[in-house]
Structures are given as C-alpha cells and as structure tokens.
Structures
1.
Amino acid sequence: MKEHKRISTLNLILIIQLVIMIILSTVITKTISKTTKQNSIEHMQTITDERAKIILNYVHNAENTLTYYSKAEQVVNLLSDPSNQEYIKKAQAFTEDYSNSVENIEGLWIGEWNTHCIAHTNPGTVGITTRKDPTSLKQLQDAMLEAGDKVYNTGIIISPASGAQIVSMYKAVYDENGEPMGFVGLGIYTNRLVENLDSLSIKGFEHSTYSMINVSNSKYIFNNNLELIDSVVDHKSLEKICKQYKGAVNSDNGYFYYENKGTNYISIYNYIPEYGWILMIDDTKKEVFTLTNVMRLYMLIFAIVIIGLMIVFYFFNKRQEQTNKKLAASIVKNNKTKDSLYTAMFRDVLTDVNNRVSFSMDIDEMKPSKDKPYYFVMYNIADFSIVNSQYGNDTGDWLLVRTVDILKQVFKGSKIYRTGSDEFIVAIQADTPDNKMIMNNVNDAFQRLSAKHNTPVGKLSFKFRASVVKKSNNINSSVITVLKDMVNKFNGSIGLTDMNT
C-alpha cells in the first residue's frame, strides 16, 4: 500500500510538472511570438518611414528649387513687363542657366497668368498657351491662389509633354499689391528617386516590394510591375485603404494582411497627408514572421520533449539573445543609414563640403550687422566642361577637390559650399567693418587657384573667376544670383559689391 502510494505521488508530481510545463510553454510561446511578431512589424515600419522621408525630401528639394527661382530678379521683372524684349532675353538666359544646375529636370518655365509661356528651358515651347480651356485654367489659377506664397504641387504625374513620370508643381508670383502677375512651373523626373529606392535592400526581407498609391484617384504612382503605374488599384484591401485615407489631413502608419493567388501577405504602410500618398512595403507573412514560426516550432518541441526541456530551454534563451542582438544591430544599422541619407542631402560627396541645399538653409541662421558684416565669395572654374573633356573626369574631380583644399587653407574656419558643378561659395563673417584682410585672402586664394598645379596628367594651370558680395542686413538666396552675375561681368578679375547700398 505504502509502495503503491509512493508511485502514485511520483506520477502525480510528473503529471503536475507536465501540466505546468505545458502551460508555461504555451504562455511563453504566445508572449514571445507576439513580441517577435511586433518587432518584425516595427522593423518594417521603420524602413517604410525612412523611405517616405526620402520621397518627401526629394519633393521638398524640388519645391525649394522652384521657390528660389520664382524670387529671381529676372523672373519678377519679366512678369511685371512681359512685352519688354530686354527682360525676355535676360529671363530666358537665366532660366536656361538655372536649369543647368538642377538635376533630373524635365522643364522650368515662366508663364503669364493665362498660362502663356514667356520663358522656358526649351526655347521652342515659348509662346505656347498651355491651358486654353477656361475651366482647366481657372482650376490651376485657384489652386495657385489657395497655395498663396507656397508651391502648388500637383503631385507625381505622367507628363503630357515627355510621357515620363515627373513631380509637377507651380508657384504664383505676386506684384507689390499682392496681385498675381503670373507664375513659374517646374517638372522633375522621378527616375532618380526610383533608382535610389530600388538600391535600398532590406536585410531579412529579400522578397519584399514597395509601391505607392495616390488616394485621391486610387492609382499606382510606383509599383514593381511597371505596367500597373498610373492604373487604378484592383484589390479590395487597397480600395478600402484608399477610401479610408482619402481627404485625411493627419499622417498615419499601420499594416494590413491580404491574400493574393493563394499566398498570404502583410503590407506595412505610411500615409503622407501633404500629398495624399500611401507608401507601402509588402512581403509574405512567411518571410516576415520566419523567426516567429521557428520559435513556435521550438516551443512545441519543448512541451513534448520534457526530458530535454532544460537543454531546449537553455538553447531557446541563447537563440532569443542572438535574435535580440540581430534586431539591435539592425536598428543601429538603420539609424546609420538614416544619418547617411540625411548627410547626403546636405553634403557634396566628392569634395565633402556643404551643398546648395545646405547653403539655402544656413542663410536663415546668418545674422550680419554693420559692425560684423558677412562676405560671400564665389570662385568659378571657367570652362570646367573643357577640363573634363580634354583631360578626363578624373582630372576634373581632382581639380574640384584641390579647389576646396586651397579654400580651406586660406579661409580657415569659414563655411564652404559647392553650389554648382563648377562653383564654390565661401561665407565669412568679418570681425570688423573693414574688408581689407578679407580681400587680401580673396586675392590670395585667387592667385593660388590660378597658379600651376601638379595634376594627375602633369603640370597645368586653370582659369578661375571670382566675385565678392558684402551683406550687413538680412540675407536671402538672391546672393547666389548676384554672385553669378558678377562672375560673368568681371570675367578674369574679382568684382566686389555691397548689397546694402
């Protein structure tokens, strides 16, 4: 009896242990699966958000380009007197020159309020009225007026002129009384943006794809199947989400599941209310939740194979630790990628100095005064295209880097910007109103740049042009335009102007 009772107790203990372990295994499996599943979704959400920022930066840069162009003197003068031949000539020349500094441009133009084109990057387009239909014309005019002093962005469309996909935008130009004189327009190809997005792979999600939809018309903007671009979505889940966000004014993100041809997918999305776009990254549930499924399998084995429970549990902890390290490493890598993308927006990769976008943002932080004015010095490599064609691009790149090295040596502590393919601007805040020392440095740098250099193809000298602008009050982007005009005017010598007089 006692022996029988002892065996029953052991069996009961084993049964209780088994039940406890099964319960623990079930609870642990659900908890870990839920956490790992959420980590995978958050990881993909982070990647989606980063790509949405890349798209926004690309569009915002284009809008800034049009804004700076709209404020140019040549544009304002022409719209104030569209029949003035001198203004027409200057505006056309400025438009062509300005467009040369804009990458991936389809077209840049100036139009009267009735859309009659009076300057265009393509001179053959000048004289054409783009919107003859009164209804279409009024819609455009009302949209520009509603935008006020901001850019009216029509979004990413298929250009009727080139048949290619572009970012299309307009901006009204107003007279002193606040009445619209006309407008400026810009088209930027999206192919460079698509190339950048395509080049960004996602570790662990090799079969993922991305797409973007305009919720206002439920049409694809981007899709890995090029035939679907500019076509209406044909999936109930996508139709539902377009309807949900149509007209929404707040940014949002999330995910949803759907089935396509017998395969279950998860779509992580980011809604961009500024333009009414939804960016999505899609992948199979099997790939996204691979780690979750593996863990479930292990925990099932743990519950069944009680004999090896401790060993398996130890193995699971080790596996979980490795997984957390991988996730942490992925987050660190994503942050580094984000920082690199941010740096690429504001730095010139070749010369490692600030670029034109950075200059446009930095001028808002510059606070000149009469006692401490700012000097802006532009150095332009004359006939730079000839240098590339005659001596090769390697020599041209060497010359750009060498130019920056000399400017850094002469203007120590000053900010240097590459604002064009062959032009650099140095921003210097003087300690005193006297410009003698600064002009000495300007001349010193000019002499060094113009001297003979030991280049990769031998000893050569290059022709430079320079100009200097002094500012004691508010600074804006027109500084670049003035510097360019002076460089062309004082060809071979150094021109100085005080923009405060």
2.
Amino acid sequence: MAEHTFVPLDFERLTEEQMIARAQSFREELARRRSVRHFSDEPVPREVLEECVCAAGSAPSGAHKQPWTFIVITDAQVQRSIREAAEEEERRNYGGRMNDEWLRDLAPLGTDASKPFLEIAPALIVMTRHAWEEKDGERRQNYYTQESVGIAAGFLLAALHHAGLATLTHTPSPMGFLQRILGRPAHEKPFLLIPVGYPVEGCEVPDLERKALEEILVWA
C-alpha cells in the first residue's frame, strides 16, 4: 500500500493573551447555543449548509476513513414521512420503552411524542455512520466509527451555530426508518437527526443551568 505524502503543518502560534481571548470568545459563543424545538419555516441558504457540512467533514477519524455521510433533506414530503415514522417510534418510547426515571427527567423539559419541528424546520440533516465500506466489491473495515462520527457531529453543530442557525439534536430510537425512507445502503447506520433553521419569532427555551467548571474539570 502506498504511503501518504507529508506536507508542512499549517499552524499559527498565538500569544497567551490571544489564546485566552479566542478561547473565551468561542466559549461564550457556544454557551449561547440552545436546542430549539420551535422553528420558522423560512428557507436557509444552501451554501451555508454546504459550508457547515464541509466543516464537519474536516473532523478527525479512525485511520482517516471518514466514515460518515450527511443527508440534507428539504423535500416536504420526505420530511413528513420522517416525522410520521419518528413519532411512531416516540409513542412507543414514551408509552413503555422509557423507564419511570427517564420520563421524570424529561418531564420538566415539556417534551413528548409529538415532533412537528421535523416538518416545520426548513432542513433536516441526517448523519449516518459507515459501519464498513464497500469498495471494488469488497467489504473494508472502518475504525472507531462511533467516536469519529460523534466528533464530526460536534463540529457540525458548532459550525451551524456559528453561521447563525438554530439546531436540535434529535435521536429517535431505533432509527432504522431513516435508512428505509432515505434509501441508504446497509453499511450506513443512522446516527443523528438534526433539524436546522431559524427560531420562530418569540421562541422560548427552558431556563437551564450548565454544570460549573469545577464540576466537569479534573486536573490530574
């Protein structure tokens, strides 16, 4: 197997003051990102979504296999089909799959099996994880696919927020219906469903507090 060529690293060394300022600015920007369930149906620019997907595609991955596909859905009928299938799974979840503790934890957030945002949001992005690859008629291994696609998902959410769009991480489980509706091959496993758009005028979100730094950071 041919080895990769190597090129000089494009890296800008910053002063400590610059590093702190950038870190604070980025932290403050991401702190404003919230999960939105009330979207306007106003379309979003296609180029913005493409740039954000490109940003997500720059994430690191096991052996540089890039085991992901991003499906952007703007067709109203497909969105309706996804909503109907997602709500069917969610009714089963809320109706017995979720245990009592899970339901109690969700209750303050006001969520239920109804998912109208899947039709109202102007775009849905489905991320799929490539459990393996088909190439030249052979099955090829991928590595650390959960971790790799999870990192790419974080990149995507940050990019969409930075571009001025609202998002929601929706994980109806099981998600096999997405593979069926979208006609994706067997090796692509649905990983995450992200409604994207602008929040509706007057949108409200739960008044939540995030854990303090000392609760999430350990120096060792």
